[in-house]
Design a protein that fits this description.
By secondary structure, the chain is of the alpha/beta class. It is built from twelve helices and twelve strands. It folds into two domains: 116 residues, no CATH class; 242 residues, Spore Coat Polysaccharide Biosynthesis Protein SpsA, Chain A (Alpha-Beta Complex). The strands form three sheets. Strands 3-2-1-4-8-6-9 form a seven-stranded mixed beta sheet, sandwiched between helices. Strands 5-10-7 form a three-stranded mixed beta sheet. It has a two-stranded antiparallel ribbon with strand order 11-12.
Length: 376
Amino acid sequence: MIYSLILLVSMLLYVVLIFRMRRAWIRTPYNQPEDHEIPVTIIVVFRNEAENIEALLNDLDQQNYPSELIEVLMINDASADDTVERIYRWSAKHHLRVEVIDLFARSKAFKKEGIELGLAHARHENVLLTDADCRLPADWIRSMTTTDYRQLRCGPVCYIPTKTFWSDALELELISLSAMAASTIAMRKPILSNGANMAYSRKLFFHSGGFETDKKKDSPSGDDISMLRKIDQIAESHIRYIKSRDAIVKTRMPESFGEFLNQRIRWAGKTRYDLFSKGSDLSFILMVFYLLIFFAPIILVFSFSWILLVSWLVALVVKWMADVLYFKPILEFFERTDLLKAVFKAELIHLIYIVPVALLSLFMPFTWKGRKLTHG
């Protein structure tokens, strides 16, 4: 009886939170690109990306932005394939300024050290970051660039669509995380960002103390969340979500269950030290609701109760209805309203794995780019 009551109360809190985030998303204004064309540096930290690197370079070369204002720094994190050779071959045939810089990491924080190395070599103040397995729209640079050097810009990210049983569920999940980033930024409680689509100035990075003052500076992931937290604490700075279809970055979807599991364990570890940070109340509501829904059927197996069964089913249906209403304006923005029919399937898949993955992230190592790592 008590469990059922707590479950229903958490359900109501979840619905309130979902509608607050929906309203925040709708109120987030569409981005209007600035007229100024200023020099920009693109930093890409890569490792073993031979299959993807030329597509990214082609996207950068085809930007609707003066090529003489673009500097691309490719930070090589000990690639063992022919990614570097492919970059050099591509550069020999194109005019875009591309420089390869080798990273000799001192810790397991490879991505963070790579970004720091790129910032140290950057010729321009305005810096954009993306990943080597991403695809960029033609106006990405124009959409993400600003002359306001106090501003951190977070952009939308989604998966490149594929046709597998769970692809629509994974697409919905990443879109929901991108929308949550926008909503919580609008609510002034930022809790999420995605390093595949970010922009900030060198001045802002070094003013924040960079990753050197990060309490989890040696963690192999979390460069994006770290900068979000640190820049949010700077009084004169501000964080902006770039709500523009011209800024949507598409990234590759996990191709196997093992790759999916490793990615989610890595993601879950990003926020393990943020329980008492700004926005933690939002995370707490979500965490409690997911825990209660996950453990309810397990309790029913060992101690059946009609009250608990009905409460659990009501919570699932109400969550599904709230999620459909939440996703509708978001999927209209991403031009993927066809995914609305997959919300219930995505909900079930999400509820099955999210709690185990969160627990596994506390102690289980994960594989990333051929390395076996821990959050530590």
